[in-house]
Automatic annotation (TrEMBL):
Keyword Zinc-finger: no
Name of the protein: Insulinase family protein
Domain Peptidase M16 C-terminal: 190-367
Superkingdom of origin: Bacteria
Amino acid sequence: MIQKIKLSACAVILGVAGYAQEVEFTEYDLDNGLHVILHQDNTAPVVTTSVMYHVGAKNENPERTGFAHFFEHLLFEATENIEKGSWFKLVSSNGGSNNANTTDDRTYYYENFPSNNLKLALWMESERMLHPVIDQTGVDTQNEVVKEEKRLRVDNAPYGQILAEVKKNLYTKHPYRWATIGSMDHLDAATLEEFQAFNEKFYVPNNATLVVAGDIDIAKTKTWVKDYFSDIPKGAEVKSIDIKEAPITEQINATYEDPNIQLPAIVTAYRTPSMKEKDAYVLDMISSVLSDGKSSRLYKKMVDDQKQALQVGAFNISQEDYGQYIIFGIPIADTPLDTLLAETDEEIAKLQTDLISEREFEKLQNTFENRFVNSNSSVSGIASSLATYHELYGNTNLINNEIDIYRSITREDIKRVANQYLNPNQRLVLKYLPKSSDSEEKNSK
């Protein structure tokens, strides 16, 4: 039996190693500044076509927040050659699927098609870039869609305001201080000309990366990319955001009342470095030590053993300019929020004082090896990674060697980073509370 188990383990290891092959790609620029990345994988007759624009919530006017997320929706409305309401029908009727998403740093559009429809996907993305219809009808339609999304995912969602409250308190100057979904009042107040100007400024080839990944022929794809994209005019240079925050030197205390919850929560948040820095990778590992799975330190202690928390988690939110490291806990019964805070502080202090065990470190390395392999296990995942590594990190080949950064992290690095960033005088403590009857009374008057 033992021998069989050993053989099974070897098979798993060999299987993982087999999939962790180098991702080959070709990349180049068109004369208009569009960066193109092609990845050929002919194992299945599918192809992902995607465009990542280097525009997110941080590029917005502080009085017009929500524009980047709004455009995620608006640029599906219509183009000069695709009628209003026809985009999704065109994709689905040709056996495809598509979507888009927005962060503070970028906006990403993609289509998955059978590979014989690659030209259709390229044409559609070129239409989105060159011929979008930005008119009042489309703006009004998507305004209602975005409002409903905000009601569903933020306003009426339990604990839906946590990230917005964290960002609002951690940043005073940088545009990370507002929520990605933005303000509905700002969208209502915006003119059609403002929307058109935003499109003209940011959704241009020299501010974008086009990725084609899957069952393709590189030479043919290059020809088609040239045919569909090379005549799109280059836009004005988009200047990167360069706004620095002063270090946090005293604990920030804040409260927020949420009408959608019955149980309070305690949130601690720390401003952390850019995702491009090695320390951001170390913070990923610290999150895993603290709250990844039932054997993690916070979960085992506070949920299983001491039964103080219904839920607890540590999250490293890495972004282009800064990151947020967030620890979140919901108490059981009458456990005070301050108790949860003290218990999490105790676990951080252990990381700052003692090296994690060799066994814990080995488990940690295996976890990140598996994540790396899984992130490149599908054509669509590879397309997203290629676009992200080029557009946000400036190094496309991180798709192959980012794992080397994790492998280079030592137990000493974990201790050092915990000491450098996770201190009480560098953080926000947010008490996230159910809305009190007193508050409801005041608001009703």
